[in-house]
Amino acid sequence: MYLTPQHILLAGATGLTGEHLLDRLLNEPTVTRVLAPSRRPLAEHPRLENPVGELQSLLPALEGPIDIAFCCLGTTIKQAGSQEAFRAVDLDMVVAFGKRARELGARHLLVISAVNADPESSIFYSRVKGEMEEALKLQGWPQLTIAQPSLLIGERQDQRFVEQLAAPIAKLIPGKYGGIEACNLARALWRLALEEQDGVRVVESDDLRRLGK
C-alpha cells in the first residue's frame, strides 16, 4: 500500500543527504508542509517552515500535525571533537528528535544509521549507531525504517580527503558495503516513505542503491 504524506518533519536538512531530501520534498506536489529546523537558515520556500537554532532547544516548540519524520542527523568524532560530543548528536539528539516527532503525530520515522550498526560492537561508531537504533525501536513506532548505508558519496562543504580517495572504489563494491550517492539515498528514503509496512524495516546499502536509481 502506498501513502501520500502531506506534513513532513525533517532533521538534518543542511547535511549531505538532508539537502537532497529537502529539495525532493519541496518538489513533491503531494507535500503541503515541510517543517525543517536547522542551525542556519535555509532558502525560503512557500511550503517550508524553518525554525533556526539548536535542535535540542527547538524541539519543544515544534507544532504538528506531522505524517512522516525523516532524521538525517549525523556527525563524525573529528567534527564533534570527542566521543561524548559524537554520542550527543548521533544518539541523544536522534532519539530526542524521534520522541518529539512521535508526540506530534508522526506514524513513520525514517532514520539514517550506518552499515554494521550493532549495540554490542567493539567499534565505537558502530556501537553508538546500534544503540541509537535500539532506542528508537523502544519508542513504539507503528513504522520505523532504518537506512544503513555504507560510504556516502557527494560534494560536502567540508570535503574529507580519505572519502574523496575511497569514493571511486566504494562505488564498485557489491552488496551492503558498496558506497551510495547521497542524492540516491535521498531518493530511496522518499520511496520508502511512500510504502506502508508495519513494524521495523532495516534497509542496507545495496537495496538503498536499487531504490535510489
From TrEMBL:
<feature type="domain" description="NAD(P)-binding">
    <location>
        <begin position="12"/>
        <end position="133"/>
    </location>
</feature>
<dbReference type="InterPro" id="IPR036291">
    <property type="entry name" value="NAD(P)-bd_dom_sf"/>
</dbReference>
<protein>
    <recommendedName>
        <fullName>NAD(P)-binding domain-containing protein</fullName>
    </recommendedName>
</protein>
<dbReference type="Pfam" id="PF13460">
    <property type="entry name" value="NAD_binding_10"/>
</dbReference>
<dbReference type="InterPro" id="IPR016040">
    <property type="entry name" value="NAD(P)-bd_dom"/>
</dbReference>
